[in-house]
Structures are given as structure tokens and as C-alpha cells.
């Protein structure tokens, strides 16, 4: 079973990335983004694709322009995650055969993202919308729309989000912080995977 979790490795370096990624995959998290505002992010993405591209979907977060989409594609990434809804970024992503997960906060942004071809929606910041905000938005979203809550979603409230209509989650600092050891990341990942699995039952 592929769990609906995206690991957000903000701040990771190319030297750290392989061991952290291996720990996450071993724990059961197989969708991994390296935000482009991390040090030498394209280098990290290329290394992870080379080492683990057959075991996980590797891509980038904080993608803000079509030029950055091209950079990620050149590194072999298959996933583009943004904090905002930019139809040009979504269109460019899909034209290159990659997954597009733009950030949305309003019904207007959600509909614009879907119209542009987004594979799923990143509700961000989740902590501001809350499960009640997602539940209200679900009433107007097309059936089958995938929505991941990012920011403010974690083991303590996975169940609340799922009840409100969340399909999955993006997990950042609760999973990884710069300088963290692979063992620490593995322990956090194991706890998050267990909590998500339990909440989905």
C-alpha cells in the first residue's frame, strides 16, 4: 500500500539527502519533495532520482515558475508541488508528464488549479483553513478531487482531517529538520506512518 504522504525535506543538502530518503522509504513514505529553496536542491533531486527513482516518486516543492519546472524535469523529478496556484506552472508541469500539486486556499484557486490540469490540490496553509474549512470546500469540489492538507496536519489530527475530506498529507518539520540524523528521521517517519495508517482504517 502506498500511503498518501508527501515528505517535505526543506533545507536538506545533497550530502544528507540519500540517507534521509532511504530512511523514509524504509519506513513506508514513498513520495518525497525537496523544496527548491533548499541548498543545491536540483543536485539533491538528481541524486535521489538516480538512487531511489524506482522505489519512490521524487520531485520538488516551492516551485514558483515554469523555468523552475524545467530545472526539476532536467534533474529527473516527477513531482511538482507549489505553495500557490499558478496555471502556467501547472500547464508546464503536465506538458512534461509530471505530477502537479499546486497550493490552494480558496474555492476560486481550487477550481483554477483543476481547470489547468492539476493532479491534486495542496490545501495550504492547512492550519489556517482547518478541517472545517476543507469540509466546506469539499461541497463544491468535483467528485474524486484529491486534496492533501499541508501545514497543521500531523499524527495528532490525521483523523479529523480525513473525516473532513482530506485524502492525504504533506509533512515537513514534523518529519525532517535540517541537520537531523537518518535515525531520527526514521523514528519520526515510523510514528507518522503508523498514525496515518491507523487514521485511514
Automatic annotation (TrEMBL):
Keywords: Carbohydrate metabolism, Lyase. Homotrimer. InterPro entries: Aldlse_KDPG_KHG (IPR000887), Aldolase_TIM (IPR013785). This is 2-dehydro-3-deoxy-6-phosphogalactonate aldolase. Pathway: Carbohydrate acid metabolism. GO terms for molecular function: lyase activity. It comes from the Bacteria. Belongs to the KHG/KDPG aldolase family.
Amino acid at each position: 500500500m502506498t500511503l498518501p504522504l508527501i515528505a517535505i525535506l526543506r533545507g536538506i543538502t545533497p550530502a544528507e539527502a540519500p540517507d534521509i530518503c532511504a530512511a523514509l522509504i524504509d519506513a513506508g513514505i514513498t513520495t518525497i519533495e525537496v523544496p527548491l529553496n533548499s541548498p543545491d536542491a536540483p543536485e539533491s533531486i538528481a541524486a535521489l532520482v538516480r538512487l531511489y527513482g524506482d522505489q519512490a516518486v521524487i520531485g520538488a516543492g516551492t516551485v514558483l515558475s515554469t523555468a523552475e519546472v524545467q530545472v526539476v524535469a532536467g534533474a529527473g523529478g516527477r513531482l511538482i508541488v507549489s505553495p500557490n496556484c499558478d496555471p502556467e506552472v501547472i500547464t508546464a508541469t503536465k506538458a512534461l508528464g509530471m505530477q502537479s500539486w499546486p497550493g490552494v486556499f480558496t474555492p476560486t484557486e481550487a477550481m483554477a488549479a483543476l481547470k489547468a490540469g492539476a493532479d491534486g490540490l495542496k490545501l495550504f496553509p492547512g492550519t489556517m483553513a482547518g478541517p472545517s474549512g476543507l469540509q466546506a470546500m469539499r461541497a463544491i469540489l468535483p467528485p474524486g478531487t484529491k486534496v492533501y492538507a499541508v501545514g497543521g496536519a500531523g499524527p495528532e489530527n490525521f483523523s479529523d482531517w480525513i473525516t473532513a475530506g482530506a485524502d492525504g498529507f504533506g509533512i515537513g518539520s514534523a518529519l525532517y529538520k535540517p541537520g537531523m540524523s537518518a535515525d531520527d528521521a526514521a523514528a519520526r517517519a515510523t510514528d507518522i506512518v503508523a498514525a496515518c495508517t491507523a487514521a485511514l482504517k
